[in-house]
Amino acid sequence: MKVSYFPGCTLKNKAKDLDTYARRCAEVLGITMEEIENWQCCGGVFSTAKDEIASKLSSVRALAYAAEKEQILVSVCSACHNVLKQTNHAMQNDADFALRVNNYCAPDMAYHGETQVMHYLELLRDVVGFDKIREKVVNPLTGKKIGAYYGCLLLRPGKTMQMDDVENPRIMEDFIRAIGAEPVVYAMRNECCGGYVTLEDKNLAAKTSAAVLDNAAAGGAELLVTACPLCRYNLVKNGGRDLPVVYFTELLAEALGVLDATQGVKEENNG
Amino acid sequence: MAERNNMKEQILRTSGVNPLKCMRCGKCSATCPAYDEMEYHPHQFVYMVETGDIEPLLNSESFYKCLTCFACVDRCPRSVEPAKLVEAARLMVIREQGKNRLKPDDIPAQLDEDMPQQLLVSALRKYSK
Ligand code: SF4
Ligand code: SF4
In percent, how much of chain A has pLDDT > 90? Predict the structure, then answer.
């Protein structure tokens, strides 16, 4: 099966591992991720303003590209996924917004929200299936106590994202079980890390990140997984605690036996 | 007064929020991770927009502290979605000439080698037009 893939700016730079392992694991699981030609950055954060049009055009172009190919649009970064999905939702439900976008893009492009937008985790759950992944695991992470860190962007706003129960999600815990490890469920797993405010207010990010790490450590987590480069940055940089945080795709690659020899959670290598 | 009504109208239009739905339970502010750093809290954005008391919101830095985490959106029992008002107030300021808070030239001084690009594009989106 082929899907359209939107990597996003960070997966081409600071979070190359997130990209490399996502592609490699997808191949093992029978899915080819076809990178969208000439994709443009999603902007990292979705504006809920109804009159904010231009900043959403890059997402609409990616959505329209996938529609033309009749493929699912997949991303791995939580932020890209959030922006793409919220933009798609606006194209489906806000007629005025959709009209203005299409007027601007005509005659080259017309789009009305046809594309199905999926995060890579949803691809694993809904297309591949966690049972199938379990069968493909050659190197189960038995005995590892892993905390899922959802942050805010994967789940919220729940009405739009529709990935999972916003207050009691389980998709990442199910993923952790599928690769043979033991999920640690802790209360702060869907609270914000401090996001972009870290650029001008480190104290705020230190407070929010430390609250997450302290809570996860108290629950017995030895390792956290995330799908978001900014979450990972904040937790590692500002969390004030030596708890490793890795991308979920690295663990998947390790379990499937396609991780580069120099890496792996056993060496605590965070890329 | 006309000016005040205009600002209120603009914020309601941009946000699509109906503040009259609010029952003032304060849950949005209770769940807000930026609460301590804000002068005006999410429930106050709702009340102050409702009453047309917009200037203090625009003159405060509260909206720059919002993390766009959507916690107040999902946890409001009346679906008021306060973050959309915070965003509308932010845009009302940022969209004015000369009101960009973060300029590309400011960034090199703040960089560290681990910073993801995502952080920079998000900050530029929130702190400038
Ligand atoms: S979206 Fe902004 S105002 Fe709402 S809870 Fe998050 S930080 Fe607070
Ligand atoms: S949570 Fe909703 S109803 Fe309660 S104060 Fe906030 S906006 Fe009003």
Answer: 92
Largest interatomic CA distance in chain B: 50
Check pLDDT > 80 for residue A85: yes
Enclosing domain of residue A71: 2-120
* Assigned token pair, A48: 């809920």
Taken in order of first residue, the domains within chain B and their CATH numbers are 2-96 (1.10.1060.10), 102-129 (no CATH)
Q: How many CB pairs under 8 A join A and B?
A: 128
Query: Is A6 within a domain?
Result: yes
CA A221 to chain centre: 21
Same domain membership, residue A157 and residue A42: no
Angstroms from A155 CA to nearest CA on chain B: 9
- Taking 60 as the threshold, does the pLDDT of residue A171 lie above it? yes
- Final residue belonging to a domain, choices A120, A148, A183: A120
Q: Kindly report, residue by residue over B31-86, the tens digit of the pLDDT.
A: 999 999 999 999 999 999 999 999 999 999 999 999 999 999 999 999 999 999 99
Quote the ipTM score: 0.94
Q: Which residues on A lie below 8 Å from B11 (Cβ)? A: none
pTM score of the predicted model: 0.95
pLDDT of residue A262: 63
Residue A268 counted as domain residue: no
Q: How long, in residues, is chain B?
A: 129
A216 and A239 in contact (C-beta within 8 Å)?
no
- The confidence score (pLDDT) of residue A17 equals 87
Q: Could you give the number of structural domains in chain A?
A: 2
Final residue of a structural domain among A65, A100, A120: A120
A142 and A247 belong to one structural domain: yes
What local confidence, expressed as pLDDT, does residue A264 receive?
56
Task: Say yes or no: CB of residue B43 within 6 Å of ligand 2.
Answer: yes
Put simply, whether B27 touches A (Cβ < 8 Å) is no
Atom of ligand 2 at shortest range from CA of B46: 7
pLDDT interval class at B5 (50, 70, 90)? confident
Quick one: pLDDT band at residue B87, thresholds 50, 70, 90? very high
- A140 and A108 in a common domain: no
Q: Which of B15, B18, B24, B73 to mutate for ligand 2's pocket (most ligand atoms within 8 Å of CB)?
A: B24
Task: Write out the DSSP string of B20-79.
Answer: GG-----HHHHH-TTGGG-SS-HHHHHHHHHTT--HHHHHSSHHHH-----HHHHH-TT-
In angstroms, rounded to a whole number, what is the distance separating the alpha carbons of residues A241 and A237?
Answer: 9
